[in-house]
Amino acid sequence: MERINWHRLFGLLLADFFTDSPFIVELEKDLSIKKQSLDVVVLRKRPGRFSGKLPDGLDNLSKHNLITFKSHQESLDDWALKELTAHYVNYRKQASPSFDKLLPEQTFRLYAVCSRFPRALANSKDWKPVQDGVFELLRGTDQIRVLVLGQLPNEEHNAVLHLLSASPEKIRYGAGHYQKHSAETSTLLDRVFIGYQREGLDMPYTMEDFRQDYLRASIKELLPEQRSKLLENLTPQERLEGLSPEEIDAYLKRLNQSPPAKKRTKK
């Protein structure tokens, strides 16, 4: 069975999230002759403000933003942060005009994103809480911002990160609130959820739940005429799927209480 590449999925989700924004996302950046890949680089490509609200912890993006990601199968530990700072040194050299004229240090940001809380790192005296799910850790002169996905608040701007939190409740929230940014969004979300299923993550949440939650969130963006067109192509049973018996009963009650339509009289 093909192994799920969670690092690539994380990068693809960020690429989708930053579609049509001042930032572009580069995946698996090759930093040496002997391949050493940095998970994600979020690079500002032009001046301008990001449309909307950035996820918690990513609200201080600079020109070059280097991100390491650890899924629910991995631990964010001391070695992972050593690798991140090593990638930063290598990347800064490559991105600069020359080794003697390095780009300013303040144009770089370092991030560590993880599904599981890094307990060993949290015991460090340099570990500092910033807000729910967001921490900062000083390593020498390097400030690393740590995002713990399972602790981020359930707010719409965090939905893209909740999808990789490995928390059933957070994943459900992410699926129901992540906004469509490209034609590939729904396929990408399906791949995320299939990945959890393949790896046996115990979630009281089915693929159908996933699609219904995403459809409910997406349909709100449609114009009334587009919504009507979509419903025309569904059978009565398909229209009712995803509604609870209580919701159907409430609708029928409202329908029965509505005044009957007036019949036209022929002249």
Can you walk through the features of this model?
The protein is an alpha/beta fold. It has two domains: 6-221, no CATH class; 227-256, no CATH class. It contains ten helices and seven strands. The chain has helices at residues 6-17, 78-95, 119-122, 159-162, 168-177, 185-198, 207-219, 224-232, 236-240, 245-257, and strands at residues 23-30, 37-44, 64-70, 108-114, 127-131, 134-139, 142-148. A seven-stranded mixed β-sheet has the order 1-2-3-4-7-6-5, sandwiched between helices. Helix 6 packs antiparallel against helix 7 (207-219). The longest helix has 18 residues, at 78-95. It is elongated. It starts with 5 loop residues before the first helix and ends in a 10-residue tail after the last helix.
- The residue-averaged pLDDT reads 85
Secondary structure tally: strands: 7
Helix content: 25-40%
Count of DSSP H/I helices: 10
| Low-confidence sequence ranges | none
Sheet with the most strands, sense and barrel status: 7 strands, mixed
Overall structural class, as computed from helix and strand content, comes to alpha/beta
Please compute the radius of gyration using only Cα atoms. Answer: 23 Å
First CA to last CA: what distance? 72 Å
Beta strand %: 15-25%
Helix and strand element order: HEEEHEHEEEHHHHHHH
Shape: elongated
Number of domains: 2
* Widest sheet, order of strands: 1-2-3-4-7-6-5
Describe what is shown at a glance:
With 267 residues, the chain is α/β, with parallel strands linked by helices.
Topology:
Blueprint: H1 6-17, E1 23-30, E2 37-44, E3 64-70, H2 78-95, E4 108-114, H3 119-122, E5 127-131, E6 134-139, E7 142-148, H4 159-162, H5 168-177, H6 185-198, H7 207-219, H8 224-232, H9 236-240, H10 245-257
Helix pairs in contact: 1-6, 5-7, 6-7
